[in-house]
Amino acid sequence: MNDELVADVAVIGAGVVGLACARALAQAGQSVFCLEAEPSFGTGISSRNSEVIHAGLYYPEGSLKTTLCIKGRRALYDYCDARRVPYQKCGKLIVAVTPEETERLSTLEKQALRNGVENVDAVTPETARAMEPDVTSYGALLSRETGIIDSHSLMQAYLSDVEAAGGMVVFNSRISAVRRSSDGYEVELEGEAERFRFRRLVIAGGLSAQHIAGTLIAEDGATDSDHAAIPKLHYVAGRYYGYSGRHAVRHLIYPLPVDGGLGVHATLDLAGQLRFGPDARWVDTENYDLDPICPPEFVNAIQRYMPWVSAERLHPAYVGIRPKLAGPGEGFRDFEIHTSDQHGQEGLVCLYGIESPGLTASLAIGDVVTRELS
Ligand SMILES: Cc1cc2nc3c(=O)[nH]c(=O)nc-3n(C[C@H](O)[C@H](O)[C@H](O)COP(=O)(O)OP(=O)(O)OC[C@H]3O[C@@H](n4cnc5c(N)ncnc54)[C@H](O)[C@@H]3O)c2cc1C
């Protein structure tokens, strides 16, 4: 083993959240290595999402998902302006597709108010139709703060910030295990006999966070799982299909949320291309296969608010998998940011269940982690 400390902190995972943590830690003056298994950054959950900058209206007030989304979103728009990361604050309409759903819409509006989300308004069916003539609804909630972002450019900007602050992002470095030592943590890399030592450790491994944390053996021989601190992980897969053809959609269009997700919505990319997804299916394995023919239930979900969309116009795009902490029907579960309060280890932060709105919240998560490790 190498007796020298490699750096103050190792961040495991170079997705949008790991990079945001590495950036914030490096800018706070810590020496940082961000260790990524793959040959490039952001190939995990961070490249398989809707690329939406969320307003923060869905989740309970005071939850991490709400507070970090709102803080992160405000910081993200400023950051994108400063660093010229492409984005568009296009706004979104959450639509009621039956008369009964209008009640759920007003519940959501009240939640948005309680959360302190700016620029959210209920709109009549007529106004919704004037804004989006090709969308059917019994009324809608308009969120003007919602936007879309080029998430790859965002991660590239975070990575440049890490390097500018003296940190390093190291690719092709798959961590096989982590261990507690007398003055920090030892990291074992797959295929390397040597272990590398860091004073502090951040586990931002996305779908692998639980697995990596489970390899940690404390000096007393106990594992994090012995302390029952690692939350169970559920995979919830979401399929995306792109739309081929002309369209006149200008806002993001969301139905009301479903168990496991926000409902099959219509998003735009920065080139104006229309894309639908993700649906929500609890699965047992990490499988990204996608049926080339869009399944009927997926088409039906779209046709509830855009009846003119036909299966023939939909082409397979990609699958994303949410690292969920809630099982089917279990309702809301928050992000979990585990510190010594949960696992009893100093200098260790584990990020669990960082599903949506993790991209939006990334800068705010980076700040929380940095405060914890300062
Ligand atoms: C379907 C879907 C839609 C979403 N839509 C949105 C949205 O519109 N807006 C929004 O704000 N959020 C959205 N999210 C959430 C957002 O994408 C995630 O919160 C965010 O990308 C998580 O980033 P991460 O860095 O934690 O994980 P990841 O991007 O998965 O990064 C983890 C990294 O760790 C690496 N890694 C894993 N194991 C190891 C190991 N042993 N050693 C070294 N490296 C390792 C992986 O290769 C990976 O690069 C969505 C998520 C999903 C699944």
UniProtKB/TrEMBL annotation:
Keywords: FAD, Flavoprotein, Oxidoreductase. InterPro entries: FAD-dep_OxRdtase, FAD/NAD-bd_sf. It holds the Pfam family DAO. It comes from the Bacteria. Its cofactor is FAD. Residues 8-370 form the FAD dependent oxidoreductase domain. Belongs to the L2HGDH family. This is FAD dependent oxidoreductase domain-containing protein. It comes from Algimonas ampicilliniresistens.
